[in-house]
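REVIEWER CHECKLIST
Item 1: Sequence provided? yes
Item 2: Single chain? yes
Item 3: Sequence as submitted:
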Amino acid sequence: MQEIIKFSPYILMFVVIYFFMIMPAQKRAKKERAFESTLKVGDKIITKSGIHAKIAELGDTTIVVETMAGKLKMERSAISMEMSAKLNTTVIEKK
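Item 4: Structure as written out by the authors:
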């Protein structure tokens, strides 16, 4: 019984770290994967580096985007979920 009491602060610390750090990161990663799977050709996006583009082609892990300067091939994970969602909602509101 004393061993459990000795380790209870460590167990409590792990539980707190799990609920405040690990679980939210897992939720965010799941949302990003869902967002990446819903992309389609013609969607307007913003990359994490701030490039505004339109999706020209989709691959399994890569995409080809069309910018004003030409076409770029990049990873799907380079797309900013939050900024692209904001961009698409403002386009819908303007129509």
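Item 5: Key structural point noted by reviewer: The first helix runs from residue 2 to 37.
Item 6: Recommendation: ____
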